[in-house]
Specification:
Blueprint (H helix, E strand, L loop, with lengths): L1 E4 L5 H8 L5 E5 L2 H13 L6 E5 L2 H7 L4 E6 L7 H10 L2 E12 L10 E5 L2 E7 L4
Parallel strand pairs: 1-2, 1-4, 2-3, 4-5
Antiparallel strand pairs: 5-7, 6-7
Length: 132
């Protein structure tokens, strides 16, 4: 189970499907982006592997009762959403699950990352859930 939070075009979740993910939940609040995700999923014929949810990511995370093996989180920069939401998103991981959070180099996530990669002004932080 994969969660693509702040899904945008759905490219991260669709890539996960192409690499064997059994199911991806896409969460996006923009109706325009939802239409793009729907079209992309339809184009490659993987509708049965995708659930598309129109929701604000914060609301979704607060109400989510599902656990995920892999979560992609790429919130808009300069709103401190990565730092505020990452600890809550981390709680949605299964044991051994991985959270991949893309954020601004100017935003610190208040958790200990397993590894980080910096690309200019962007940081990709990886967090692995070691226990429930």
């Amino acid at each position: 189970m994969v969660l693509d939070l702040f899904a945008g075009s759905g490219s991260l979740g669709i890539e996960a499907i192409s690499r064997g993910a059994g199911h991806v939940t896409f969460v996006e609040k923009s109706l325009e982006c939802i239409k793009v995700i729907e079209q992309n999923v339809r184009t490659i014929g993987v509708q049965e592997l995708a659930t598309i949810i129109k929701s604000d990511a914060v609301t979704y995370v607060k109400n989510c009762m599902t656990s995920f093996n892999l979560i992609f989180m790429d919130p808009p920069y300069h709103k401190d959403l990565a730092s505020k939401l990452a600890p809550h998103v981390y709680n949605l991981l299964t044991t051994g699950g991985i959270l991949v959070a893309e954020h601004s180099v100017r935003e610190e996530i208040p958790m200990s990352a397993w590894k980080t990669k910096r690309y200019g002004d962007t940081v990709v932080s990886y967090f692995m859930r070691s226990e429930q």
